Structures are given as structure tokens and as C-alpha cells.
Amino acid sequence: MKILSEDRTRILFEKLTKYIGVNVKLLIDRPDGTYCFREKKDRVYYISERLLQLAQTVKPDHLVSAGTCFGKFTKTNKFRLHITALTYIAPYAPFKLWVKPSAEQQFLYGHHVIKSGLGRITENTPKNQGVVIFTMSDIPIGFGVTARSTTDCRHADPLATIAFHQADIGEYIRSEDTLV
Amino acid sequence: MGRKAKFDETKKVKKGPGRKAKKQQDPVFKKGLLDDDKEEKKLSHRQKQRAARRLKKKKEIQEKRKALKEAKKNPTQETEQTEEATSCSEDETPKGFTDDNKEWLKPKKATNKAKDPESDSNESDDEGLGEDENDASSDNDESENEEKEVSKKSKKENYKVGTLDDLFHDTDEEQDETLNDVEDDDTKKPYNSDSSAESDESEKDDDDDDDMLPIEKANIKLKKKQRLEKKLADEEMQLNIAKQDVFAFPSEEELQNPTSLQDVLQRIKDIVAVLGDFNRLKEESRSRCEYTDLLLKDLCLYYSYNEFLMEVLMQIFPVQELVEFLEASEVSRPITLRTNSLKTRRRDLAQALINRGVNLDPVGKWSKVGLVVYSSTVPIGATPEYLAGHYILQGASSFLPVMALAPQENERILDMCAAPGGKASHIAAIMKNTGSLFANDANKERTKAIVGNFHRLGVVNAIICNYDGRQFPEVIKGFDRVLLDAPCTGTGVIAKDPSVKTTKDQKDIQRCFNLQRQLLLAAIDCCNAKSSSGGYIVYSTCSILPEENEWVVNYVLKRRNVKLVPTGLDFGTEGFQKYRHHRFHPSLKLTRRFYPHTHNMDGFFVAKLKKFSNVIPEPVKDEDDEEAEQENENGDGENEVNKQNGDVSPETKNKLKAGAKRPAKADSSQPQQKKQKPNGASPQTPSAASSLTANQNKKNQKKKKNKTGQKSEVVDKQDHTSANSTEQEKTNGDKKQNELDTTEIQGDVSTPNNKVTLSASQKRRNRKKNKQGQKGENKVNKNENDSATIIKPVTSKEVPNESTLDREKNKGNTNASILNSTDSVAGKKRKNKKKNKESLIITKESTSVSAEPQTVQEGDKNQVTQTTTEVNLNEFNKNIQINTSGKGSPSKKKNKQSQVQENTNKIEQSNKDVLNKESPQTKDTNKINGSDQQTSNESSSKKKKNRKKNKNKQAGALSQINKNENKVTETVEIAAAKKLKNKKNKQKQIGKLDSNKGMKKGVDKKNFKRNKPKGK
Amino acid sequence: MDIVNDILEREQKKAEKYKPIVVEKHLELEFDVGTLLTSDTNDLDSKLIKSDQERDIYLQSLARDNTQLLLNKIWELPTERIDEAIVVRLPQPTTVLPRAKPVPKPKPLTKWQEFAKAKGITKTKKSKLEWDEQLQKWVPLYGFRKAAAEKEKNWLIPVPQNLDPMTDMYEKKATEKSEKVAKNELQRLKNIARARKVKIPRVGLPITSDKASSTQLATATSVAKASTASLGKFQDKLPKEKEARGKGVHELIPGKERKRKLPVPTPAAEKEQNLSMIDRILRKRPKIDMEKAVSKHINEEQLQRSEEKKSMKPMKGRGKPKGKGNATNFSAKKPKGGKGQRNPSKKNPGRKRR
After folding, report:
1. Where do Basic and acidic residues bias regions lie (chain C) (predicted)?
2. Inter-chain residue contact A13 with C274, CB threshold 8 Å
3. C82 in a domain, yes or no?
4. Are C295 and A124 in contact (CB < 8 Å)?
5. Which residue in B564, B654, B710, B762 has the fewest CB atoms around it within 10 Å?
6. Within a domain: C76
7. Using one digit for the tens of pLDDT, what is the confidence trace for B318-359?
8. Is residue C2 one of the residues assigned to a domain?
9. Domains, chain A, ranges and CATH?
10. Crossing angle of helices B733-750/B993-1015, nearest 10°?
11. Minimal Cα–Cα distance from A157 to chain B, Å?
12. What span, in angstroms and rounded, lies between the C-alpha atoms of C329 and C323?
């Protein structure tokens, strides 16, 4: 559990702002205790200060995980958001996207969201904006990046991709071992 | 769910959803078993037997009838008809379909009847197999009922029918055939009844009713009646059979080649019925164990268990319940799932799942979050709700430990064996993501599952780490609550993993409970007793074996400052307080057991401990470890029984909350004190005992008269005598105490069954000792010569019978056990002669028992013991010489003594090193002890012998000798008494047996100290 | 008489001047005369030790007594006189003195020794002399007289068929020999290098710039950049330039702080840092996004158009031709299947149901 370096922190926050915009601040200054980001083996964990103290008693090579894993830094020093971060991203996301029940399974198996599967989408979502994807019963099932803005969606043909799949809760089953 | 201990890393644990909901496929059998129940089988030996017996019965019945009719005074032809019917049935061989194999085709019904109650009870707990069996059985009953009533109302018309049926006798036969083949294809089907037979008979009649002449109709009617009557006869007979005898014990060749599974099942049920009320239904010349052995074999065959596990199960359950358990563990439990209260509420989840076409219900009153799934159109482990972490698949039994743990918010909680994180996430959910949760698991692979589940369920207050639980106290301590769901053999979850049936053996269980003990100790160390809200430890396994449950808890109760508290689960059966030869702490009834057949959840065990102090009492080495070692080297409990019963009883008695130390002291004290036997004290004891009895004889005459042979009695008496004796001469009080304790210790060893009396006697002994002590103080400085005078005449008196005793000794000197047994016999004979030999006798008896393990042991041990005995022998010769020479030089004694100790130590060492093939040291201590005892007797007798020689040489020398001896001994005694005095004060405020022992040890040590200067 | 007395008195005085040589101790001292060592296990007089003025006297006396005892012990030993000096031969010292230097490490094995060890090859002693059939005499295996023997032995070397007849076999032999020696020398050096853990190229020469690996080059560049007066502070970076990473690189680069981890700030401080950083990031956001602007514009147009549609509808009464509205006002709304509220004033009362 070591503290993130300057640039890594920047990369992380840039990525987060893609998805939850200004709400990143809410992650940092919370009413309940102070929370912070720590990295371990390139994985970034979001953990409360109090829990962190306890976690530091555990030897690094015996510590598997602590708090919530947000994602990992790739070899090329980019940050990739994991599905495990959904717990924190979903409630803060300004831009949402709802998929029809028919398209749920499709998305959960890692496909993109296509127009035909699109249930609702937040007004004037720009292009290439990180969005959290919900079922019609408001269960967050993953997140992705919009392929086209809301206005374009209107005119798009039913097979056009609306949002690129990035992570979905199906990964909990599909790739449990590589999850964290 | 408690995972099973994975000793070989080769087989991977199935991960991800659905690994809990695994369907149990049917048991596989050899072809030989399966095919031959299809083609119709000829009479097996047993069936023939039954047929023969039934014939006899039938005859009797008809005699009865006849008698009845004579009473009615209307002699009819019907009687002789029945007679000739019986005659024909006798003379014709039972092939094809005839009366008597019609009869032997029946008894399925009878046995069905026998089976009904249990199948009903099954219905209560398991769906899958329960129902079909039940409706089968139920329609059985109703069919039989209506048959009965038929029989009742048509009792009287028998007689009129009887008049006619000699005319239709021949036609009867082929009618019977129709009936019979109906019936015998009934017998093909497992659960069947005559109701079907009845129905298709009737319809048969109906279809041939039309286009018939009236006479034929009449004929048919008559035949129907005829058949009815026959049925009645059979019915009646069935009833009788059901009353008299259900089951004939099969012969060997049948056991060699089992006919079919159905038969095996049948046999099982019969035996269960027989064992139900044994003394009425048993065959003569068949012992209960024969039945149980047969049952064991059959169960192993039918449910495909290995013998060992089945034996263990039979020890846990009564047979009736055992069968239920086995049945229940064939079918898998219904899938249950736990609502993740962090993300949703149960109602909402249920609604969502029902919309997805899942058929579910709340699991029960006892859980707010449990849902049980009956059927589902979608894979229950892959719905979006599941993936979104609204619920987790978890066995109903897995809720229990967490409910028992009752975590509070803002606590620090540890789950020691957390994978795959079901229980841990439950804890987090109850804590509402506050506080902090450590989820540990030894297996790195499986921690991944924890990570996955936690993130899915939105548990954010958890630290997941990968330690061996035993090391965890080094990492971090001071938890408010600790949950230990220990790895186990998984005998509770056979439904999930049938491999348990065959793979588990003594070794695995051994490994398991050793690991579990260490884990539980570690868990307790992790817990913080001072925490305001907590200080609780919950121990749970998915096994039902007491070795892994009660015994483990009992073990830690001795070693840590913990106490059992109620689990807060209002259902479940209480934990065992005694199992086989174990006697557990009475508070173990606070633990809870759950069985598949009674609670319809996996077999499970939950114990809740409260830690009341953080100090760790110093480690004790007591019967548990030894037992563990023993179980290592031999699984059979026989010679264990001899020891443990004795050992457990006193400790579990005086071990309560802080009782951890006491057994320690006791055990530590025993060996030395045993080793001390040979020196100064023991050679004196016979004389002491004799001297006391010289005065005691008058008092105890009556007692001796009505004395019974049983040992406990003897021991008690012996206490009395010794006690009185101590009041008489305080000077050698300490020796008698030694004497006493040896008898007492070996009394424990020797008498497995009447330990109650023993412990009682121990208490008495305590009292007596205190008294001795108090008296001992003021009368220590009593002058020597009176004891000398006392001793002299007695010894002279004893000479003859002692010498006889001697002969026996020298004869059997090579093998201790033989010798002792002979002695004991001789001793019993001699018991009624003199009181003073009782002490000897008792010691001998005890030694004989304690010496039995030696004979069991390998040769080398025997040698060791022999060497020790020899050492003692020539040691005592030395002593005597020394005494005669007038200069008691116990320095030599001491050397010998040290030798003895060395031997014993060696033995103990070897035991420590090689667990599985060496014998645990209890045996050896006993061994040594036994040998010492015996040698003490021998030595005493030897001494006497010398005396005798001297006497018939010259009397003056004799007196001289005695004087010298007494001088030596007296000084010793004085010293000892002095020692006694200052020990007494301690002993008064803590009236413990062990403190006494410690004292005695001290005394003997003192003896050495005092002897040494004299020697120089 | 008086003579005797004053002699005695003189003796007395002498005696007073000296302390007595017998010292009685509560416990026996432990002597090791071999090392002239004695250790006093008696416990010190605590109050003398406490008091400042007596301490020194006490200690001195203690030292003196113990020395006296040691000397007594020495005097007990057998003495002899060597040229006017009384000499004592001290016994073997019993106390083990600690070693000044650490125990030398065992020599690291050479490559061959390792190999032999692994293979279990044990060297067999060769006899120094061996019988030469040709010369009919004992020839040493090496060294003195070997060369002479060789020369004598092959006074003539036949040139094999496959070689050209002009080859000088003597020279060939010499070169082979020299190569062998060179190789052996190389092995020796290599062994030494391995023992000292000196890095040497496996084969050939050390790398040069033309055959350097990319990592080496990256390292070289980053080192070069950093080796300025200001430790490369003012060197401008390429857009996608990476710091050379890897084992040992960090040490090469001058002016790099040596500590591994960043210092962990206090929670509050960290929080502040993070917040400020987020602010920076967010401030960087608002750059005009053509795409977004256009889409926004289109969106607004559509909105207000639909607005005016709604406003116009009621004032346009009956005269509005049917279907025209549909043609003009584009809306993604589906026709309400008779479910919308219907007003009887309208001509068409809802949809026709078939």
C-alpha cells in the first residue's frame, strides 16, 4: 500500500472526471472520515484512512485487497477503470444510459450498446463521454463511452453503436481471477 | 459454507456462482447388483425360510380356527378342506404360482408397513425423495386398512363359503394364478400394494362379467368369495408375522452374493425394525452386534460409504435416525440465497426475482435475509441482480454462525477462514459497512473469490489478507469478535460433495481436528477480552463429527480463558456432552448442532465462546493431546478407554473457568511421583499397611465379611484403612499417601466404567489427607521404637503367605502383565484372609490392568519395562543389604532411581518423536508405574524373605536388622513429616488433589535430601 | 634481647607497610592463570559503591586483593630460574578469547570445480613420471626435462595427407600449445571475475554505441540530460519522453534522490493536495468543444421548433389541412392509439378501430 505519485494521481483523477465529472471532489472530501487512494502492485484502492491504518499492519505480500479497488495502471502508465469501481461511480455519474431488458444480457456478455438496445439516455450527452449504464430498473450494470452524442442518437440507425463497452458486472463471473 | 480442508492441492476448488448449488447424482453400483432384479428371481434362501415359517404359522392358525369351531359345536367339512389345502400346499414343491409362494410374495407389504413411520418422518424434511416414497407408503396403508375392514366384516360368511368350495377346489387353482401373477409383478416394483392388484382383479372380473351364464356368474361370485377368504387368511397371518417376527438373519452365502439393491434396502429396514425393539424381535443366538455389523455392511453397500465413516456415523446416531440422516444426505438441500442488505431489501429482491420467473419463499422465521429457491427458469447464479450484488447464494446453515456472532456496528471483526466470503460479507452487511472486517484465508486462490464477492456485494470496509490462520495472532490482535468457520471433513455436506463418503478416514479426521484446535486457539488469541461490546468467538464447522466439534471446543476450554455462552440460535439440537469414551465439559450443551434430516439444512455445528481474560494459561499436556497421539498410532479405542475415562473424569470435574492450570499440575506431578515409588517409601509400605491392619483388624472385621469383589469398593475400603492408619501412626503417613496415590492413579487407569466411585474416593482421600496433615504436625516427633515394635510382630506374622506370594513373583518375573494377573488372582483368593494384604492386592490388580498395554506394545517396550523392573529389583536388594549393614546409603538408591527415570524419559522422548508408531506416554508412565508397583511388592516380599532366612538362622540378627531398617526409615519419616507440616498450610486454603500431589513430590524429594547426609 | 626485639619491631613495621598476602573472599574467585585472568563473582558492597568518596578506595582495594590472589596462584606454579630471573611457565589458557577478525569465507569454487562437484567427479592423482615406450625411459608429466623429452621424442613430425605438405608442424604444435595456455589463462581470469562478482561480457568485447540496446540508449540519454550543472532541471522534454526505468538506472542518473518511497503526507495534507489537483484538472476542462457546441445548437433548434408547434396548434383552428402538420412538425412521438384525451369538438374522434 503506497501512496500514488504525482502524475499517477493526475492520471487517475483525469480518468475519474471522465465518468463522474466534478463529483470526484465528493470522493475526496467526505463527511464520514477521510478517504484516500493507495496503490499496490499497480492496482489503485480507495480506502478510508482508518481502515488504511489497520491494513498497514498486514505484510504487503500477504495483503490481497483493502477497501475498494478502482482500477489499475497499465504498463504504458495509463489508468484502466475496473468494474469494481462501479459502486462509487454509479451514484455520482452525471451522464447515464439505460438499456432495454432485451439488451441487458448482450451488454453483460461484453458487447457494445447499440441503438436498438438503448432505452434512455441523459439529455445532451456529448460524444466520447464516459457514461454509466443502467438497466431499466435502475440497476447499474457497467460503464462505457458514448460513441455519439444524444442528438446523433436520435437519427442513428438501429444497429449503430451508441456506447462502447468498457466494463460490466458480468466480469464478476467471466473473469473473477483477473478481476483485481 | 465451511469449505472442506484441502490437503492435496491437486484437485481445484470449484469457484464462482453455482458451486454451492450442486446436484447430487445417484449412487453408482456394480452391474451385478443392478441387472438381476429385472428378471424374475427364484426363492432366495431367506425367502424359503420365511415361507417355511409361514406355513407353520398357517397351520397353527387353522388349528385355532378348528378349536374355535369345536367351541361353536358345528363341525364342518371346511376344516378338513383347509387341512387338505395345507397338505397339498405342503407336498407340492414351491415352483410356479402356488399357495405358499403366493404367501412369500406377500411380505413386501408387511415390511412396507414396517417402513411407513420412517418414510413419514422423512416427508417432513426432504422434498425430493420424501414425496414419492410417501404416497407409495400412504396408499400402502390405505390399501391395507381397507383390506382389514373387509376382513372384519366378512368374518362370518367364511363358514358358508367353506361348505361349497370342495367342489370348486380345482378351479381355485387357476383363479389363484390370475391373482398370483398380478401379485408377483407387484413384488417387482419397489413400493407397491395390493390396492392396484385389487383394482385390476375387479376390472378383470367386470370385463368377463358380460356374456356369461348365470351359473358361471354364480361360480365367479363364489370364487371371488373364495379368494377373499384366502386373502383374509393371508391377512391374518401377515398380522401375526408382523407381530411375531420381521426379519430372519441371512446366512453367509447370501451375504457373499447380495441379490439386489432392493433386498439390501429391505434388509436394512428389517434390521432397523429389529433393533427398534430388540429383545422382542431378535432371533435367539444372535447378538445385537451381529445385527449392527450386518446393518453396517448393508448401509455401506447401499449408500456407498466406506466402512470407517459409517462406523463413526453409527456411533453418532441411533440406527433409526442414522438411516434418516443417510437418506437426507443423498438429496441436496434446496438452494438458498441471502439478500445483500447493503444494496436492497428482501421484499424488493423477491419481487425482482419473481419477475424473472424464480419461484422462492422466505427461508424461515429465524432469518430476515434468507430466501429459499424452489425452482427457477433462469440461472439463479447469473441474473443481473446477482451480478449487481443484490444477493449471494449461500447455504441456510451458513447464516447461523454469523447470527451467532451477532456483529455490532463499528466493531473490528475477523473472519479467519473467509473464502469464498459468504459469511464475511454477511457480517459486513450486518455492520452496514462500518467498523472494519478482516477476511483471511490460507488459500491464495480462494482469496480471489473473496475479493470478487466483496466488490460485487459492495463491501468496502474489508481488508482481505492471506495468512495461515495459525500465524494470525502475530499479525494483529484485539478483535472484538472472531468468526472461525474451520476447514473440516465436510461430513455435514455429503449431499454437496459425495466424495466425502469414500475418501475420509481416520487420518483425515486426525489432521482436521488438530488443525482446527490450533486455529481455534489462534482465533481466541486474536480476540480481545477487554473490548466493551465483544470478546466473542464463534466456532463452526460443516461437519457433524464430535471429534471436530465438541472435542475441539472442550480442548480450548482447558487451554484458554474462555467460556461457552448461548449461541442465540433458538433451534438446533444441543451439542454432545459425552461421546463414546469422551466426557466433555457440561457447558457444551450450549453449543448447537444442525442435521440435514431434522432441520433441512446442511449438517452444521456452531459454538459461541466468550473470552474473559487475555492472559494465556501455561500450556497443559493432558489426555487430549495424548489421545490425539494415540489416535495417530492406532484408531481402536479399547485401551484408550482404559486410560481416558480415568483421566478425563477428575479434570472435567475440577476444570471450570480458570481450571486450565490444575490438570497441568496434576499431570506434571504424576510421573515423577510415580518414579519416586521405588525409593524409601514403597519398600516400607507393606509393613506400614500391615502394621495398621494389625490394629485395624478388629474394627474392620464386619466390613471384610460383607465385602464384594468389585474394585471401587476395595479402593474405598483401602482408603478408610489407610486413613485410620495415618491417624494411628503419623510417622509414616506420607508413605501411605504415596501408596494411596499409586493405587488411586492406577485405579483411574484400571476402572474405566466406575469412575464416579473413583472420583468420590479421591475426594474422600483429600479430606483424609488434610486430616493426616493436621494430626501429622503435632505428632511428628513420636519415638521410633514403637513403630519398630509394631512392625516386628506383623512381619513375623506375614511371613508364610508373603513367601507364597514371592514364589509367584519369581515365577512370572519375565513378563509383568502375566505376573500381575496371576498376582491379582492370588490376591483375590487371599483377600478374605487379612486386611493388610488388601493394599497389595489392589495395587496388584491395578497394575495388572495398567500392564495390559505393555502386552499390546512391541517387543522393545516390553524389554524397557523389564529392564526397569530389574533395575528396581536389584535396587531393592541393595536397599536391604544396606539396611542390614546398618548404613542406609541412599546415594546408591539415587543412582538407581536416576536410571529408572532415564528409562522413563527415554520412552517419553521416543513417544514425542515418533507419533504414529510409538505409544503415547500415558501408557509408558502406566507401564513404569506398574512395574514399580510390582517391584515394590516384590521388594517388600524379598525383604520379608531375607528376614525369614535370618530368623531361622539367628533371632538376634533379625531384631538387629529390623532396628537398622527402622532407624533409616524413621529419620526419613520425620523429615517427610516436617516437610508435610509447612506444606499443609498451603494445602488448607487450596484443598486440591494436585496440590497434595505436588506436596508429596516435595516430600519424596526431601527424603532424598535427608537420606544423603546419612549416607555419607 | 633488645636486639631481638628491635629486629622483631622492624619486621613489624615492614609488615605494617605491606598488606597481608592472604585475602579471604566469601566466594572463591575463578582463575585462568594461562591468560592471567581472574574474575570475582562476589557482589560489590552497594553502599560503598554509592558513596562518592569511598568508591575509589573500595575499588582499588578490591583490585589489589584480587591481584594478590592471582599472584598467589601464579606463585603456586612451579618456578624455575633462568639467568637470575625467576620464571613461571603458565598453563594453557582455559578461557576462549574472541576472534578479532571474522572467520574467512571459503574460497568460491571455479567453474570446473562446480561442474566436478555436480557430476561427482573426483580428481585422480596422476603419477609425476610416466614410462615412455618410444624413449624407453621415465618421462615427467610436466616441467623439468619434459620439454627436452618432447624434443627428443618428436625429432620429426610427419605431415598428414590432408594437409598441404608445406605446413610447418612444429609451428602448428607451438601455436596449439600457446592457445591452450591462453584459454586456460582466460578461464582463470573468468573464475576470478566470477568470484569477485565483476561484470564481464559473456562473449567478445564490451558493447559500443552502434550495438547498444534501446534500454541502454534510453538510460544513456536520461543520464546525459541529467548531467548538467542544474541536474537537467531546465532541459526541455520531448512530448512523449519517458524516464529510463529499470534496475540500476536510477543510481546512474545524477541528482536523483535516493530514497525509494515518497513520504506519506498526513491525511489532511493529502486531501488538500488531491483537491487542488482536481481543481486544476477541472479548470483545464472548459475549452470550446466544436462537436458539443454544434450538437447543443441543433438540440436547441429542435426544442424551440417543437415549442412553437405546440403554441401554434390551438390558434390554428379547423382550417388546418390534415397531415400537413405531420409533414411539417417532425416529432419522434408515436400516434397515441386512442389513448390520448379526445375532445368531441375535433372532427376526427380518435383513431378508427378496426
Report:
1. 237-256, 287-311
2. yes
3. yes
4. yes
5. B710
6. yes
7. 888 888 888 888 888 888 999 999 999 999 999 999 988 899
8. no
9. 2-87 (3.10.450.220), 93-174 (2.30.130.10)
10. 130
11. 27
12. 10
Helix B194-209 vs helix B128-153: angle between axes, to the nearest 10 degrees?
Answer: 60
Is some CB atom of chain A closer than 8 A to the CB atom of B13? no
Residue with cell 383513431: C351
Q: What is the pLDDT of residues C312-349, one digit of tens each?
A: 765 555 544 554 445 455 556 666 665 656 566 666 65
Question: Residue B698: what are its φ and ψ, rounded to 5°?
Answer: -55, -45
Q: Give the gap in angstroms from C-alpha C204 to the nearest C-alpha of chain A.
A: 34
**B300, B512, B526, B542: which is the annotated catalytic residue?**
B542
Cell of residue C75, nine digits: 606463585
B584 contacts B557 by C-beta, under 8 angstroms: no
For the residues C51-73, what does the mean pLDDT come to? 90
Residue among A69, A163, A172 nearest B384 (CA): A172
Mean pLDDT, chain B, as a whole number? 63
Separation CA B133–CA B122 (nearest Å): 9
Q: Is the ipTM of this complex over 0.85?
A: no
Neighbours of C150 (CB within 10 A): 12
Within 76-105 of A, beta carbons closer than 8 Å to B belong to 83-84, 87, 104
Euclidean distance between CA atoms B816 and B932, whole angstroms: 10
Work out how many domains chain C is built from and give that number: 1
Instruction: Report, as ranges of residue numbers, the positions in chain A whose pLDDT lies below 70.
Output: none
Question: Looking at residue B287, what is its pLDDT?
Answer: 80
Provide the percentage of residues in chain B whose pLDDT is more than 90. Answer: 10
Q: Which residue would you say has higher pLDDT here, B424 or B813?
A: B424
CA distance B646 to B623: 10
Option in A25, A28, A154 nearest C332 (CB): A154
Write down which chains contact chain C via at least 3 CB pairs under 8 A.
A
C149: pLDDT strictly greater than 50: yes
**Distance between CA atoms of C159 and C169, rounded to whole angstroms?**
7
Beta-carbon separation of B463 and A51 below 8 A: yes
Within an 8 Å CB–CB cutoff, is residue A36 touching chain B?
no
What is the length of chain A? 180
Using the beta-carbon criterion (under 8 Å), do C282 and A17 form an inter-chain contact? Answer: yes
Q: How far apart are CA B400 and CA B570, in angstroms?
A: 11
Domain containing C55 equals 17-88
Residues B145 and B928: their CA atoms lie apart, in Å, by: 70
A interface toward C at CB cutoff 8 Å?
2-3, 5, 9-10, 13-14, 17, 22, 24-25, 28-29, 34, 36-37, 49, 123-124, 126-127, 149-152, 154
| 8 Å CB contact between B806 and B678 | no
Burial class (CB in 10 A: 0-12, 13-18, 19+), A130: buried
- CB of B15 within 8 Å of any CB in chain A? yes
Query: C127 or B148: which carries more pLDDT confidence?
Result: C127
Average pLDDT for residues B873-894, to the nearest whole number?
A: 44
Q: How confident is the model at residue C178 (pLDDT cuts 50, 70, 90)?
A: very high
3-state helix, strand, coil in chain B (%, to 5): 65, 5, 25
Per DSSP, the three-state class of A72 is strand
Burial (CB count <10 Å: 0-12, 13-18, 19+), residue B930: buried
Residue B91 pLDDT more than 50?
Answer: no
pLDDT category, B779, cuts 50, 70, 90? Answer: very low
Torsion of CA A6, A11, A13, A17, to 10 degrees: 160
Q: Is residue C28 in a domain?
A: yes
Cell 631481638 identifies what position? Answer: C4
Q: What is the DSSP letter of C282?
A: H
Q: Given this model, what pLDDT does residue B319 score?
A: 82
